[in-house]
Amino acid sequence: MCLMGLLGDVSVTSRRRTTIQNRIKCCLFDHSRRKQQDSRCFHHSSSHQASFKSDTMFFSSNALRLILLLCLVSSSFSSSAASLSNSTTTNQTLRPQEELQKLKLIREELQKINKPAVKTIQSSDGDTIDCVSTHQQPAFDHPLLQGQRPMDPPEIPKGYSIEDESYEDSSQLWSLSGESCPEGTIPIRRTTEQDMLRASSVRRFGRKIRRVRRDSTSNGHEHAVGYVSGRQYYGAKASINVWSPRVTSQYEFSLSQIWVIAGSFTHDLNTIEAGWQISPELYGDTYPRFFTYWTSDAYRGTGCYNLLCSGFVQTNRRIAIGAAISPRSSYRGRQFDISLLIWKDPKHGHWWLQFGSGALVGYWPAFLFTHLKQHGSMVQFGGEIVNNRPGGSHTSTQMGSGHFAGEGFGKASYFRNLQIVDWDNTLIPASNLKMLADHPNCYDIRGGTNRVWGNYFYYGGPGKNPRCP
Predict the structure, then answer these.
(1) Which residues on adjacent β-strands are paired with residue 461?
(2) What is the largest CA-CA distance in the chain?
(3) Which of 132, 138, 389, 456 is the most exposed place for a label (fewest CB within 10 A)?
């Protein structure tokens, strides 16, 4: 570059002597500093300019040849060095910029997600729980909610009985210390830089990977579910057995949940989801955690887990969405479950969520949805895992307890007291329940009915095994 600049200046008239002098001086800079000095080839202080202007002689042809030779030698060394270390230099130059940009993006996202805390509680599992003023929670960042307050509790569905709630109730680890959030606040699990750095995409953090169909396994999602369809559904209820299944990869998960669904699975799917999940990518550990999710466009751009975007409005100060559940069930040991109820408020149309024995968690505003503004067209209960096929074989990530449905109580995981909410805001048994397992040799499901548990099923499995290679 310096050589070409100098050759171009040799033919100019004497009024450009200063420029020539500056270009020549560029060539004489130490080679190791050239990248930092390039700009100085074109800008010099006034004292230098005055000194050059005082020169009355043009360089002799011999002097010019010497300078040109020096430039050629320098350029040759520069080209050799560049050819030997081009890729390394490029990586060293670009990677820090990329990392800084990513860190900047992460911090911008954290400012949106994490709100100012009135009180902070440290959980034994490492979580930080921030008690945030109810009106400052992420939901109220939504343009249609700004300046509003949470809605009053709706009418509970008819036929609801607290006696059906718990076999042995599970709670949350953060609350076992006896600490709680004050009135007028809600507990929110703080999102950290480490949480976002684990994510495969910062911009997609807290969102599910889009799926073309519910029963498609082309992207590695596998299910064992009971479902009802063919009617109008205004909610669902079930008690879900809580376990700690093994998840073998950071980018796999295992969950058990209720889905309320409307629309098509291809492009305009509306879902409301709640249950428990183990997701090392999202949470950084393998605790089962209470979670929620929603989407109104088949997971394309709307919705998120928990409170990681504006949407779900939390009203409860004792339950933290995304917090670890404790205790968990054990094989041949004590069994624990969580009761969840989702239903559409007949008066305002919002979809409410209840956790455990009568604790209202909050609601999904009706305006978030298209089809679910009216009602659901399907309800599903069951388990889902992600299978990334490590080493070309099926994953060993477990669903439910990690044991097949045929092992029964105390060994296999269950859903019990399956109910749906009808048009009259009444809880009725989930009749005509159909069972579906995408890969029954890996994860299966078996249903039944009895007087104590109503409609129920066992489900799950170990994943990879001799029949599931």
Answers:
(1) 399
(2) 111
(3) 389
